[in-house]
Amino acid sequence: MNTLDMPTMIAELRRDEGVRLKPYRDTVGKLTIGVGRNLDDVGISEDEANAMLQNDISGACGDLDDALPWWETLDPVRQRVLVNMCFNMGIETLLGFHATLGAVQRGDWQAAHDGMLASHWADQVGARAQRLANMMLTGEA
């Protein structure tokens, strides 16, 4: 039976390893994050990837709430388009889509679609932009 005192173990490892929220190279050159997580050799689990994804989606939604409070009035498909774009490029870059966001806010789906596809972002992400622009146009996934 494991009798490890987990809270004490966590405190000791946090003290000894430190906590780094951005990747760094440790003393032997291994890419590391968090409390000594060796990304080169250990990586992350599927559960950890899903937890990080959920946190990032929540963060994108919070950014949209703060910057574009009207986004929640959209139908669920078009909400997902904005979350996807915000997740991909960050809120600051998304906010640079002035004409496209204006078209979304007023429900001009054709103009929003066209604006999305006329962007440098669309050139960068290819099929993703086409799929999201079509979702914006039709309101269907």
Largest sheet: 3 strands, antiparallel
- Average residue-wise pLDDT: 97
CATH architecture of the largest domain: Orthogonal Bundle
Strand arrangement in the largest pleated sheet: 1-2-3
Multimer state: single chain
Q: What structural class do helix, strand and pairing data support?
A: mainly alpha
Q: What is the percent of helical residues?
A: 55-70%
Shape: elongated
* Radius of gyration, CA atoms, in whole angstroms: 20 Å
Kindly identify the CATH topology of the largest domain.
Lysozyme
The overall strand count is 3
Q: Write down the domain tally.
A: 2
Describe what this molecule looks like in 3D:
The protein contains eight helices and three strands. The protein has 141 residues and is mainly alpha-helical. It has a three-stranded antiparallel sheet with strand order 1-2-3, with no helix packed on it. Helix 2 packs across helix 3, helix 3 packs antiparallel against helix 8 and helix 5 runs antiparallel to helix 6. The longest helix is centred in the middle third of the chain and has 22 residues. The mean pLDDT is 97.
